[in-house]
Amino acid sequence: MERLASDYPLFYIEPWWGWADSIDYDGCIENKTGILRLALFKKREFSSSLELH
């Protein structure tokens, strides 16, 4: 049976970090403002919070 999104009691917000592309962005991901580069086998953890009223 196919399940619909409305069958799941969940509200998901995907967090992201960064900036929109600048006017002079050349399209090369290595040159994109805000890209975080990690050394091989390294990790970085991020957290965020959200309040709904």
Structure at a glance:
The protein contains no helices and no strands.
Task: Name some characteristics of this structure.
53 residues; little secondary structure
Helix coverage percent: under 10%
Question: Could you tell me how far the N terminus lies from the C terminus, measured between alpha carbons in angstroms?
Answer: 36 Å
Shape: elongated
Strand content: under 5%
Mean pLDDT: 80
Profile the largest sheet: none
What Rg, in angstroms, do the CA atoms define? 18 Å
Oligomer: single chain
> Regions with pLDDT < 50 over 5+ consecutive residues?
none
- Give the structural class: little secondary structure
Tally the helices.
0
Number of strands: 0
Explain this structure to me?
- By secondary structure, the protein is mostly loops.
- The protein has a domain at 29-53.
- It has no helix or strand.
- The radius of gyration is 18 Å and the shape is elongated.
- The N and C termini lie far apart (36 Å).
- The mean pLDDT is 80.
Set out the fold topology.
Elements: no helix or strand
